[in-house]
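Handout, section 4.2: multi-component inputs.
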Amino acid sequence: MNTTAIRVDRVTFSYDNGAVLRDVDLAVGRGEMVGLIGPNGAGKTTLIRLVSGILAAANGNVWLQGVDTRKMKRSVLAREVAVVPQQIAVPLAYTVEEVVMLGRTPFIKPWRDLSAADGEVVRRTLDSVGLSRLARRCFSTLSGGERQKAVLAMALAQEAEVLLLDEPTAHLDISHQVEMLELLAGMNEERHLTVVAAMHDLNLASAYFRRLVLLKDGSVVADGSPEEVLTAGTIGAAYSVPVQVQPHPVSGVPQVVVLPRHNGRH
Amino acid sequence: MLLLALALAGCLAVAAAVGSVRVPIGDVVKICWNAVSPFNVDATWRPADETIILQVRLPRVLGGALVGAGLATAGVIFQGLLRNPMADPYIIGTSAGAALGATVAMLLPLSMSFLGFGMVPLLAFAGALATVFLVYRLARVSGRTPVVSMLLAGFVVSAMLTALMYLIITMSDQLYEKFRSVYGFLLGGISVGGWGEIAVIAPIIVAGIVLTRLWAFRLNAFALGEEGAAHVGVDVERSKTVFLVLGSVLTAAAVCIGGLIGFVGLVVPHALRLVLGPDHRLLVPSAAIAGGAFLVVADLLARTLSSPRDIQVGIITALIGAPIFIYLLRRGGREYGL
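Output:
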């Protein structure tokens, strides 16, 4: 039994204008919940796109459940890994149900159309993100938070064991941010879904992820528990901004406080 | 869908019955029945009627249905694939290629034929496919074919081929006189000589529609954008090539017997999206049937309104299609979107 869900093995990748990832090694075990942190341009999105097979590594290999992603057909890959991208062009005229049904695409074959079982998966998935009552609503009528949950439901309908999310809490208010992360933590705990999410909010990342991986300039510079990664020295150096780290007043997890160079209150 | 199919059958029967010689619809149905089934009913009609129905009207009416079905399906493909509401079957250059091909064919002194087709449909078919191939090659950058470059390449190649066509027409005295027939091709008009052409075109168009329906779930995924489609397991580049081939072959086959009929491929898919929603598994067969019925009716009007002179069917499709579309757009109901 292979216990490694994702293995990134000495991966280098560059767009036309220079290296984005350099010799990245990363192993994520089954059922882990990992937060990818790091400044803008550090390579978080690129890493997610490499693991999901959207990009192919120039050097090195990406293994999913022990299989080289380059040897997997797209439809097979989509049953192993589901992605909630930062931006996705969801057709506004679709109902929520129709959007989530698109997550069943990897299971359709030209000679085998959607079945009642697919409908059941969609119904269950909508229920698990709390969108059942909006199933027949048009996507265009949803709020930002509801849209994000619908996109999450579409990814979950793929029934993949690995879920990758690129800044799932961007553009959400704090209550929706917490709701989204609670959902992910629940899926991770109850269904042993492997979750890897790029996060900008270090304090939310610290509260919800047991393991954080810090990327800077295309390399992994720290990897470990929030206590190990979120130190004033490491974060201050990675983001080039002075910070102080203190324990959360209730839970005790490390919380990062920025120290403004200009004091706004004169 | 059943309703649409019945409507198509009705349109076919009516269109076969009406013309310079009127044949009662009951007789049309009986004549068709006798032609395909071993159990004949008694012939109560004139033999001349039977000849008119079987040899003249039916090929033309079926030709119209095939052209309409092919164009509407191609329209569904291009709109879904390119996620562009302005996309029609001709968007990536088929029309310009077909028009240039037809023009060249009219200029050629020799009159060859192949499988019962004259030079004009043959070169139109070849021109359409060659243009798509050229546009595809031009738009292809390091193994990928971005939609935007395809639209731009299609636009530029079309502009150039159209200019070439007008240059040929202007420079050739012979064609200047024949301009009416070039013009007829550009506006579209069903021209079917007999069953031979139907026997070639029908399998191509029917196969194209069936294959598109089988792959319709992939068109649905393209609504998520190319990367989104890849996330849900669609091999984007391969699917794009398949759909381009399907759409182009359907269009080229339709152009072969219909010339450049506008509007059907643009508006029938849109109208059905407004009524049925965005699921291509439903949209593809519905658009094929509705497009067929629509063109059969348009062609009927085209050949009867100012008989004995035929009006170009492309004029009719726009004149009756546009008001129907505006009505659907204003009626409300389902929100529109690709």
